[in-house]
Model the fold of this input.
Amino acid sequence: MSSLPSEPAEALSLVGGRPIVKRPYVLADGRELIYYDDADTTLPAFRAADERELDPRPPTAEMRQDALTGEWISIAAARNNRVFLPPANLDPLAPQAPDNPSEVPSLYDVAVFENRSPSFGPELATPGVASVAGDHSVGLGRVRASIGRCEVVCFSPEREGSFGTLPTSRARTVIEAWADRTKVLSAMPGIEQVFPFENRGEQVGVTLHHPHGQIYSYPFVSPRTERLIASIDAYGPTLFADILASEQQGERLIVQGEHWSAFVPFAGRWPIEVHILPHRQLPDLAATSSAERDELAVLYPRVLRAIDGLYPTPTPYIAGWHQAPVNSHRDEIRLMLQITSPRRAADRLKFLAGSESAMGAFIGDVPPERTAEALRTSYAEAEGRER
Done:
């Protein structure tokens, strides 16, 4: 395997007068690997080749339609073989070492690669094959290929931590990677929606402790977004602007910056739930400016540190970037980060009981206003420690 990159290095946004650099490579089985170097990196430009001998990639999974809801379910059996809580010396996201044939050949700042056992992909749309996007018909036994792309985003070569523990420079690089991947993935055939997210904590199903996230690129518009579109149709195109204005004036606001505001939503489902909205209409991360990314690299990790400050031990959470579909509603759906945690006390979690699991009817355990008050205090303490 050649150590040469698959494409020339590319300078992205300038941070402090120096660029974040993108370096594309290819893994031994043909999967894409992209390094993103911090603006203040100390790494050399050279990256080692992936010299492993790997089995062929699993075939693209199958989607089946649930005739009761019209939703498409990916049946991705290959995911059962993925690594589950390996010992530290066999961390598949750490840089390769003589005793650890991991997924990343060289030391890195941020690395993104195609998932070895994806829920969607590696096949993309084939010309002439009808898409499920916009197809609201329902039938029995309907199947399609689970086309798309799933990627892993390694936040750091360190084996422990999360997005909230990253220094500002590294958080900025991850945000740049999210924006770049959103742009690239959105242009791939058949991709209808791009979803970057992070899971932290075994309580929410994490199988690797290494600080990382994922990006799912769906061949359909997600069910959650379809419900959002219905709400916009019922309310009007100013829904997000009106929510932001209301929360900025209310008691659930945590912090308001120049470009972003963080708040606990009025009808939060989870004991801890925080939404972060940009102050202008942006369909996705690719549309953000350098200034917006700079502020987010400070504000977002601080919100996560405020969440961790509520209890003596780190809090499990799911953080997901809800972005507009690639081909519709881009002037109405606003980019939004939603952070949710099932933690309702230091030693208690909210489990989805009958009403939530069976009927989708949530019952909140903690008033959102009380959560917001606690998070404002914790945020101020985190901000004070960092000054």
In short: Residues 12-220 form a domain with the HIT family, subunit A fold (CATH 3.30.428.10). Helices lie at 168-186, 223-235, 239-248, 290-308, 354-359, 368-386. Residues 168-186 form the longest helix (19 residues).
